[in-house]
Design a protein that fits this description.
- By secondary structure, the protein is an alpha/beta fold.
- The chain folds into two domains: about 80 residues, Rossmann fold (3-Layer(aba) Sandwich); about 120 residues, Rossmann fold, CATH 3.40.50.
- It has ten helices and twelve strands.
- The chain has a seven-stranded mixed β-sheet.
- β3, α2 and β4 form a beta-alpha-beta unit.
- The chain binds NADPH dihydro-nicotinamide-adenine-dinucleotide phosphate (NDP).
- The site of NADPH dihydro-nicotinamide-adenine-dinucleotide phosphate has 26 residues, from α10.
Length: about 290
C-alpha cells in the first residue's frame, strides 16, 4: 500500500479507498497495455435517475482512462423488458464487448432478475448472475461482485493476514453480504452473517476482528461496539438529514478503537468501480480463444 493510501487518526489507520482505487486502476491500465487486448465494457442505463446517471458516467470515464473500448446505451424509462432483453442479446453477441453492466435500479415494470439472468455469465462483470454466485460458493473461477471484491482488496492492502480472524458481516444482500461470506471464508476467516433479525448485534459485532457493514442504515454500528484493533470496512452510503453522506458505522467513535477503518465517502465506493475495471480485463482474458 502506498503512503498516500493511509492516514492515521488517534488510533485507526484510515484506508483511503480513493487512493487505493487509483492504484488498482493504474495496475489494470498497465496490464491492459501489456496484454495487447482492448477489453470492452458496455454500460446500460434505463431511465433518468440522477444518481444512476452519475454512477454510469463514472464507470464510463474509468473505462476510458484504462484504455477499454466502451459503449453506453441510455434507454428511456418506458423501455419494455423485451426491448431491454433484445439489447442484452445483441451485447452478448458483440465480440467487442467483454463486460455488460446493467445499472440498477431498473424501472418497476422490468423484471430485474430476468434481465440480469440474460447477461452471459462470462460477460457478467457485476458478478450478479446466479451462475457466478454458484461458482464463487464452490471456489471455482468466476466473476466476483465488484463491491465485495473491493472490500477484500482494501483488507489485503492493510498488509495483515486474515487467516483465523473472526469476521462479522452485517447485511445479507445478494450483491454485498452474501458474496462477502464466501470471500472471507476463502481467506480463512471464521464468518458470521448478521441481519435485521440478529439478536444482540452489539455483542456479535464486538466479537469481530474484521467487521464489514453493508446495511443501509446511517451509523447503525456504534463505535462502542467495535473490538479494540478491529479492521472495519463500511460499505454503507447513506444521506443524513443534513445532506451529508454517512456510512453504516459511527465513524469517529469507531476510529478510536479500530486498527483500520474506511471513511464514507472515499472508502469502498471508489473501489467498486476499480474492481469493475479489473473484472472487465479478467473477462477479456478469459474470452481469448
Ligand atoms: P440491502 O437493503 O439489499 O440489504 C441490507 C441488509 O441490511 C439486509 O440484509 C438487512 O437485513 C440488513 N439490515 C437492515 N437493517 C438492519 C438492522 N437494523 N440490523 C441489522 N441488519 C440490518 O442493501 P445493500 O446490501 O444493497 O446495500 C447496503 C448499503 O451499502 C447501502 O447503504 C448501499 O447504498 C451501500 N452500497 C454501497 C456500494 C458501494 O459501492 N460502496 C455498493 C452497494 C451497496 P434483512 O435481510 O433481515 O432485511
Amino acid at each position: 500500500m502506498s503512503d498516500r493510501a493511509v492516514t492515521s487518526t488517534n488510533r485507526a489507520t484510515i484506508l483511503d479507498g480513493k487512493a487505493i482505487a487509483a492504484e488498482v486502476t493504474a495496475e489494470v491500465a498497465a496490464e491492459t497495455d501489456a496484454s495487447g487486448l482492448r477489453p470492452g465494457l458496455a454500460v446500460v442505463l434505463v431511465g433518468d435517475d440522477p444518481a444512476s446517471a452519475v454512477y454510469v458516467r463514472n464507470k464510463t470515464r474509468s473505462a476510458e482512462r484504462v484504455g477499454f473500448y466502451h459503449v453506453q446505451h441510455t434507454l428511456p424509462a418506458d423501455t419494455s423488458e423485451a426491448e431491454l432483453i433484445q439489447l442484452i442479446d445483441r451485447l452478448n453477441a458483440d465480440d467487442r464487448v467483454d463486460g455488460i453492466l446493467v445499472q440498477l435500479p431498473l424501472p418497476g415494470h422490468i423484471g430485474k432478475e430476468r434481465v440480469l439472468d440474460r447477461v452471459l455469465p462470462q460477460k457478467d462483470v457485476d458478478g450478479f448472475h446466479p451462475m457466478n454466485a454458484g461458482l464463487l460458493t464452490w471456489r471455482r473461477p468466476c466473476l466476483v461482485p465488484c463491491t465485495p471484491a473491493g472490500v477484500m482488496e482494501l483488507l489485503r492492502r492493510t498488509g495483515q493476514n486474515l487467516r483465523g480472524e473472526e469476521a462479522v458481516i452485517v447485511g445479507r444482500s445478494n450483491i454485498v453480504g452474501k458474496p462477502m461470506i464466501q470471500l472471507l471464508e476463502q481467506a480463512d476467516c471464521t464468518v458470521t452473517l448478521a441481519h435485521s433479525r440478529t439478536r444482540d448485534l452489539a455483542t456479535v459485532v464486538g466479537r469481530a476482528s474484521v467487521v464489514v457493514a453493508a446495511v443501509g442504515v446511517p451509523e447503525l454500528v456504534k463505535g462502542a461496539w467495535i473490538r479494540d484493533g478491529a479492521r472495519v470496512i463500511d460499505v454503507g452510503i447513506n444521506r443524513a438529514p443534513s445532506g451529508r453522506l454517512v456510512g453504516d458505522v459511527e465513524f469517529a467513535a469507531a476510529a478510536e478503537r479500530a486498527a483500520f477503518i474506511t471513511p464514507v465517502p472515499g472508502g469502498v465506493g471508489p473501489m467498486t468501480i476499480a474492481m469493475l475495471m479489473r473484472n472487465t480485463l479478467t473477462a477479456a482474458k478469459r474470452r481469448l480463444p
